[in-house]
Each structure stands twice: as structure tokens, then as C-alpha cells.
Amino acid sequence: MYPELITRPDLKVWLPPIGSSTAYIFGNPQDLSNPNIELTCRVHDECNGSDVFGSDICTCRPYLMWGIEHAAETAQKGGVGIIIYYRKEGRALGEVTKFLVYNARKRQEGGDSAATYFQRTECVAGVEDARFQEFMPDPLHFFGIKKIHNLHSMSNMKYDAIVGSGIEVVNRVSIPEELIPPDAQVEMEAKKAAGYFTVDGAKSKEELAKVKGREIEEKK
Ligand SMILES: [Zn+2]
């Protein structure tokens, strides 16, 4: 389908034009490959409910907006910014599965809790996550990125994939506490306990059980 894959050995990386990821660049695209120019980068996995419709059950939209703001600021100071938007809705399980998980989380006995956050996904989908992050850095390599000064992602899986592919990461930038919606604390604390990047540490199993989401309001 794409003869360049075998006819252009001079291309070290090449992205076939298959609809999936979108890259938004702030500043001069040529500066992306210059490790001496400050680069702010967010690698964002699609979350339609939050990104587009503003749901407060997760941190996707505020983290994305914060990344865009920081990327633009970096470009205004003479650096460069890039936001890569990956179509991996609902941890690549899809939007319908995600809503089934939300429903199960809110309706489980004892209510929505950080202690059972991942189990609810596994009960519905059979797995916690269907994303494969090993190829995620490919678009970064396509732009010749060798060094990321500010990486907007707390995911250990994304960080490991980026660093493992030979790109240096200087600072890992967490979402500021004030941007986390109250109902998204369930997701945030569960992820930190599962290995997400955190400067203030992860909660114990007992503490996780105390992190509760908003209750469902229904007429009985
Ligand atoms: Zn989300």
C-alpha cells in the first residue's frame, strides 16, 4: 500500500498517511529536532467525553489545555511546543466500553472509589488497558525530536516508551492540583498508586479506599 516503506531506505522514520494521530506545533517545526531549543510536549490520548464535552470524571481536558498553554508559552519565549493527539479513546477500548465502565464505577457497592478504579475496567472489558505505548514515540521521531525539556504526561508507560526509544526527558510536568476536578481525584489517585509520576507520593491501599467520587443521584 505504501511503497515508500521499502523503496525509501534513506528515510529513517516515515509515517504513512493513515488517519489516527494529529500533531499541533507551536513555533518553528524545524526547532523540534534541535535539542538546544526548549521543547514542551504533551502526548495526549483522546478522551471525547472530557476533551469535547467537558466531563469532570477525569483530568483529560484540563491536562490537555494546560499542555497547550505551556506549549504556546514555550514558543513565545523562543522555544517550541508540540501536542500529539492520539486516537486511543477509552484506553483504546473505545467510548462505549468507557461509558459502561463509568456506569459500573458509579453504581458499584460503596460507590466510586480509587481502590477499585482499575478493577471496574477489568470487569467490563477483560483488561485494564488496551493501549500499546511502544509505538507511541514514532511521531516524535518523525519530527526528529531527541530531547523533551518539559513532558506533559504522568504516565509511566508513556515515559518508559519515550525514554526507551532514545529520547531524553528533562522535566516531567504533572497537572497542577488546582486543575484536577474533584470527581477526577478517583482516577488520579488510582493512577498514582499504579505507578503514575508523582512528586508527593502515592496513597496506601487504605487511603485509596477513602478517595470517593461523586454519588449518583437517582429517585428510588
Ligand atoms: Zn478522560
SSE inventory with pairings:
Elements: H1 4-7, E1 22-26, E2 39-45, H2 48-51, H3 60-76, E3 80-86, H4 95-107, H5 117-125, H6 138-142, E4 147-152, H7 156-164, E5 168-172, H8 185-193, H9 205-210
Parallel strand pairs: 2-3, 2-4, 4-5
Antiparallel strand pairs: 1-3
Helix pairs in contact: 4-5
Bound molecules: zinc ion.
Zinc ion binds at residues 47, 50, 58, 60.
What does this structure look like?
The chain is 35% helix and 14% strand. With 220 residues, the protein is of the alpha/beta class. A five-stranded mixed β-sheet has the order 1-3-2-4-5, sandwiched between helices. Helix 7 (156-164) links the parallel strand 4 and strand 5. Helix 4 (95-107) packs across helix 5. The longest helix is centred in the first third of the chain and has 17 residues, at 60-76. The mean pLDDT is 92. Zinc ion binds next to loops. Residues 47, 50, 58, 60 line the site of zinc ion (ZN).
Can you give the helix content as a percent range?
Answer: 25-40%
Bound compounds, please?
zinc ion
Radius of gyration: 19 Å
Principal-axes shape call:
globular
For the largest beta-sheet, the strand count, sense and barrel status come to: 5 strands, mixed
Oligomer status: single chain
pLDDT < 50 stretches: none
Distance between the termini: 57 Å
| Strand count | 5
Largest beta sheet: strand ordering: 1-3-2-4-5
Topology as H/E string? HEEHHEHHHEHEHH
Brief rundown of the structure:
The protein has 220 residues and is α/β, with parallel strands linked by helices. 35% of the residues lie in helices and 14% in strands.
